[in-house]
């Protein structure tokens, strides 16, 4: 059997008619930038997360960049974050000439280790940037307490976690900003690039909204330098359809994860869901000493798997060349050596899931 990491054509085949209708309706209106479809999606996602405002932007990276900029991050400002994330989290801090300050991660859920944050706070610290990596929420209750105590802003990288929650409170609801990505591979993905900033603050909302259109609130009048970073109307129309199915989409991922959890051998370390947390399994990632051999074995049996992430960000030349600081973050480094992500997406068939389980267990027999 051949099992790809992700096959987006399956979803399209299932919903082709409604997608084509949505695209046609945009062409019928002849309006391709912002407009009603984008503001409807902004409202829908803000409401879903439980905040007042959403601002559709060009992609998840820009959602981070515009949020950091609106939060006032500038030269030498320190932002405490995780090295175990996609590059954009740290790239955007550096692009504003801010300084990423890394803390290590938990071995269980791969999110920031709460116990290390306070030690890293200095006079220059402005913000904490947790990432709900793979769809498991970071310890936001603890992070919120620390941020309050030291007067720091929180920006949540929710690129992999739309719909993840702690109790009833969704990711993106804790910080001054939550940043969402609609890159096609994310849990709610569009047909190209797309992103969103969510916030409960009117002031912050106004800033981001201005930044996405060249620092302008009134056409051709510019108060500051901004960006051209808007969510396409076509993408918003498609995303609106997917938002209607979000619980179903995340629910199916959880169902697949449950099967993996129950049936994959305990010889590998399986993902962990903290009590009271709702993991949305953007990735299902196992840890094993034999990672590379297992990956090859799966490949020989037609099964794709991916290493997210092979090199933590504190070891990346692009970062080291700027921050000129050596970190030793043993958990991130160990996880990068042992981690392997298995196929998980709503249209993955049970038959394929069981085949993957069978082959992994066969490898360890
Ligand atoms: C995907 C991703 C981003 C960037 O989103 P894009 O839409 O690809 O720009 C940022 N952070 C994390 C954790 C991501 O997974």
From TrEMBL:
The active site is at residue 186. The keyword Cell membrane does not apply. Keywords: Pyridoxal phosphate. GO terms for biological process: polysaccharide biosynthetic process. It comes from the Bacteria. One of its GO terms (molecular function) is pyridoxal phosphate binding. The modification N6-(pyridoxal phosphate)lysine is found at residue 186. It holds the Pfam family DegT_DnrJ_EryC1. The keyword Transcription does not apply. Belongs to the DegT/DnrJ/EryC1 family. This is Pleiotropic regulatory protein.
């Amino acid at each position: 059997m051949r099992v790809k990491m992700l096959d987006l054509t399956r979803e399209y085949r299932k919903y082709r008619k409604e997608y084509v209708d949505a695209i046609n309706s945009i062409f019928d209106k002849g309006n391709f930038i912002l407009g009603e479809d984008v503001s409807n999606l902004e409202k829908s996602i803000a409401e879903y997360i439980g905040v007042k405002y959403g601002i559709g932007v060009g992609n998840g990276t820009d959602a981070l960049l515009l949020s950091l900029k609106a939060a006032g991050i500038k030269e030498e400002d320190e932002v405490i974050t995780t090295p175990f994330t996609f590059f954009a989290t740290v790239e955007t801090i550096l692009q504003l000439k801010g300084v990423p300050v890394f803390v290590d991660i938990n071995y269980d859920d791969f999110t920031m280790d709460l116990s290390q944050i306070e030690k890293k706070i200095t006079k220059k610290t402005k913000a904490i940037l947790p990432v709900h990596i793979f769809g498991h929420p970071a310890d936001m209750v603890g992070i919120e307490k620390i941020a309050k105590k030291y007067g720091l802003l929180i920006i949540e990288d929710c690129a992999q976690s739309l719909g993840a929650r702690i109790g009833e409170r969704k990711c993106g609801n804790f910080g001054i900003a939550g940043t969402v990505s609609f890159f096609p591979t994310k849990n709610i993905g569009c047909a190209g690039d797309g992103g969103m900033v969510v916030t409960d603050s009117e002031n912050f909302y106004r800033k981001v909204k201005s930044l996405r259109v060249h620092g302008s609130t009134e056409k051709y009048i510019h108060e500051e330098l901004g960006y051209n970073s808007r969510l396409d109307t076509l993408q918003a129309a498609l995303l609106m359809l997917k938002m209607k199915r979000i619980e179903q989409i995340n629910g199916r991922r959880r169902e697949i994860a449950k099967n993996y959890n129950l049936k994959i051998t305990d010889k590998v370390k399986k993902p962990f869901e903290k009590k009271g947390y709702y993991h949305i399994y953007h990735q299902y990632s196992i840890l094993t000493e034999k990672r590379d051999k297992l990956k090859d074995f799966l490949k020989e049996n037609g099964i794709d798997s991916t290493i997210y992430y092979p090199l933590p960000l504190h070891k990346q030349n692009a970062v080291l060349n700027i921050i000129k600081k050596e970190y030793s973050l043993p958990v991130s480094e160990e996880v990068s050596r042992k981690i392997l992500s298995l196929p998980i997406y709503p249209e993955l068939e049970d038959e394929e899931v069981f085949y993957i389980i069978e082959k992994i267990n066969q490898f360890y027999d």
